[in-house]
Every structure is written in C-alpha cells, then in structure tokens.
Write a structure and sequence with these properties.
Helix 2 packs across helix 3 and helix 7 runs antiparallel to helix 8. The protein has 269 residues and is an all-alpha fold. The chain folds into three domains: 43 residues, no CATH class; 138 residues, no CATH class; 50 residues. It contains ten helices and no strands.
Length: 269
C-alpha cells in the first residue's frame, strides 16, 4: 500500500504515513465521513485551527515563539492562518454589504462636509482589503525592527511571522464580530472605534510576551511604535490623495461636496 499524498510505501496496518504524516484514508467519501472530517477539523477543541485561535490569546509566545524556534506541527502555520483570515475578511464583507448595507456607515469618523470623501476612501480600502492586509505586515515588521532596536531577539523575517499571526488573529475575530454587531444594528464606524484600541492592546500584549519586557519599558516602546506608524499613515494618506487627484476621484468628491452645500443653502432659504 502506498501513501496517496507522497506515494511512500506503507504497511497495510498503517494509520499515518511515516514520511509526510498524512492520514491513511481507506473509506470512500460519503456525507457521513465528510461531516466527521469537517467537525474534526473545525469544531474539535484539540484541532490545530481552534487551538491556534485560542492560544494566540492565552499564550501567544508559545504559538509564535514556538513556530520561530522550529515547532511547526502543533499549530497552524502563519501563511495558512493568514490565508484563512483573508478569506473570512472577504466573506464577511460580502455578507455585510449584501444583507446589512445600512451598517456600512462611517459618519461617526467623518468631519462635517467630508462625508463623500470618507465614503470614497472606505470604498477604496474595502475593495483592496486583502492587499492592504498584506501591505501592512512588512511595514509593521520594519517599524518593530526600529522600535525594538537594541533588543536583538527577532530578525526582520521573524517579525514578519509575528505580525502575520497577529494580523490574521485580529482579522478573523473582526470578521465574526463585525457580522454579529451588524446584525445588532451597530455601524462600521462604531465597530472601528471599538476594534482600534483592542487591536493596539492585543499587539502590545503579544510583543510584551515575546520580548519578555516589563510594563514600563514596554509602554515606551509601544508609544514609539505608534508614533512611527502614525507618521507612516500620514504619508500614506498624502500618497492616496495624490493618486485620487491624478485619476480624477478627488475632483469628483469636491464637486459632489459643492453640490451638496448648494442644495443645503437652497433648502435653508
């Protein structure tokens, strides 16, 4: 008998391949064993996915630090976990925009007169959400490299792994939370105000556990991290505005705002 995954020669009584670790499947696919496989994969406490999700909250230094140190079988690897996060983020966006479009309201985050600009900006971010998720990780890793200078515990590649895990964790939890809160009638603007500080706290918690820092030094490092991140966002906003100006979107927004003000003046008069 050969392994169906790697074609390695197996004993007839083998349950797993001794080369690739693949499980030996002897039965044909039926609804019953398909359901059992799905249940085992996603709902069994001892499975990798659920264990990864839980332990990234309880003991992130074990999940992430273990992966960096070479423990690769106990938890889901960062690339697969991040891929799942991207998939769920796209799925939740489809569900919310199709069934709860009224929740896509960011007015609470918008200055008076800037509603059209904010709507256009958020539409752009959502359209390229997966690209933004991937784009953030190398930036976060670079900022962390600068922020934690002098602590040569993790190199740049290892920092990429750290933020791949944390971004995936935040995105997965956000996807489920956003759908539930949208059903409850809570808008995206309010959800963003809730999730942003939680995201900051979670990343600080993970970095503190990984670097094994006390509260005082950790607060200083985290503040420096977000100062640098804020500068990066300002630069990114300027670049986005330039792109919108070049492709004509900025002009359309300005004209729409002007028209809205004219209508408001006529209505008041």
């Amino acid at each position: 008998m050969n392994c169906k995954n790697c074609n390695n020669q197996l004993n007839n009584d083998s349950d797993f391949c001794n080369i690739c670790g693949g499980k030996v499947i002897r039965n044909r696919l039926t609804f019953k064993n398909l359901f059992e496989h799905i249940s085992e994969t996603f709902f069994n406490y001892d499975n990798k996915l659920l264990r990864t999700l839980i332990d990234l909250f309880k003991k992130p230094e074990v999940v992430i630090g273990g992966y960096i140190d070479g423990i690769r079988k106990r938890y889901v690897n960062p690339i697969s976990y991040f891929g799942l996060a991207i998939t769920l983020s796209g799925l939740y966006l489809i569900i919310v925009t199709k069934f709860y479009p009224e929740s896509m309201d960011f007015s609470i985050l918008t200055a008076p007169g800037q509603e059209e600009f904010q709507k256009k900006n958020m539409s752009f971010v959502q359209e390229y959400q997966s690209l933004f998720m991937m784009f953030y990780i190398p930036i976060y890793a670079l900022i962390a490299r600068i922020t934690f200078v002098g602590l040569r515990k993790f190199n740049y590649t290892e920092l990429l792994v750290i933020f791949m895990f944390t971004q995936a964790q935040i995105s997965i939890v956000s996807a489920f939370s956003t759908v539930i809160l949208a059903i409850c009638g809570i808008t995206h603007g309010v959800i963003s105000l809730i999730m942003l500080p939680l995201m900051i706290i979670y990343n600080a918690f993970v970095l503190k556990r990984l670097y094994k820092l006390t509260i005082g030094p950790m607060i200083g490092r985290i503040l420096l991290f977000f100062v640098i991140l804020g500068v990066c966002f300002v630069i990114g906003g300027i670049i986005a505005a330039i792109i919108m100006f070049i492709n004509g979107d900025f002009q359309e927004i300005m004209e729409a705002q002007k028209a809205a003000k004219e209508v408001a003046v006529v209505f008041i008069n």
